[in-house]
Design goal:
Length: 155
């Protein structure tokens, strides 16, 4: 085996062990999931279980995920009239999720400092798609007060 300067001549088991050690010491973030929309449609919660292809507490803990960015995205069927209503439904679900002991809302730098160590998983609220602004930049202030910390203009 060639020496790559990092793993040297380590065997596979040793590299896997080293990787697991690095993973355990790191803050692991999943920076985009559409789970809020799916949970609204299915009536499930992040603490109990996830529909196929989505996340739940058990999956996140198993993967060592410390921070999850939950995107609020509105399907075409809600646009334009129902966009704000759907975003509010997802925001309400976000806050219901953070009310328990499994997750907490990440709103500030000090909240980021709480991440890790096997405790509750940090959730950050995001909006995917500028349609949620409804053509009014004042919505940014309102969404920020609601807990949104990230907005993408397109999806």
């Amino acid at each position: 085996m060639a020496d790559d300067g990092q793993t040297g001549n380590m065997g596979r088991a040793e590299r896997v062990g080293r990787g697991a050690e690095m993973h355990a010491k790191s803050i692991v973030a999943d920076v985009h999931v559409d789970t809020l929309d799916v949970l609204l449609r299915t009536g499930k919660t992040m603490s109990e279980g996830a529909p196929a292809g989505h996340v739940c507490k058990a999956f996140l803990k198993e993967g060592g995920v410390d921070l999850l960015v939950t995107a609020m995205w509105t399907d075409q069927r809600f646009r334009p009239e129902g966009t704000m209503h759907r975003v509010m439904q997802m925001a309400d679900l976000f806050w219901q999720t953070c009310d328990g002991s499994d997750f907490f809302a990440v709103l500030s730098r000090s909240d980021l400092d709480r991440i890790g160590g096997g405790g509750p998983i940090g959730l950050m609220l995001a909006i995917e798609g500028g349609e949620a602004l409804c053509g009014d930049l004042a919505m940014l202030r309102l969404y920020h007060r609601l807990g949104v910390r990230l907005l993408t203009l397109t999806w």
